[in-house]
Amino acid sequence: MLEDSLIGRYVELDPRRPWSGEARLRDSGVPVWALVGHWLNATKGDAEAVAHDYDLPLDAVIAALAFYRRHKPLIDARLAENSATSVA
Predict the structure, then answer these.
(1) Contacts for 13 with CB less than 8 Å, ≥ 6 apart
(2) Does the model's pTM come out above 0.85?
(3) Distance set, CA 20 to CA 12, 30, 37 (Å)
(4) Span 2-87: which CATH code?
(5) pLDDT in tens, 50-83
(6) How far apart are CA 82 and CA 67, in angstroms?
């Protein structure tokens, strides 16, 4: 229930790319996939560090991670796409 509220408050679909893999934070526009990638790789799972690094409220990061858990295959695919693009 709390996750639903946080997601509703902080996460939105990008109107130009309205699918879950391209969801973003409502106030900042930061893509969920970018936060998740940073959370997984740079901070080794530290949500507070992600909030600090992106200058975001911790609740926004928690909302992004909750959204990720619900849409993991799509966001993982977006992360993989970004990795392939950055290597090429």
Answers:
(1) 19, 20, 22, 23, 24
(2) yes
(3) 9, 14, 15
(4) 1.10.10
(5) 999 999 999 999 999 999 999 999 999 999 987 7
(6) 19
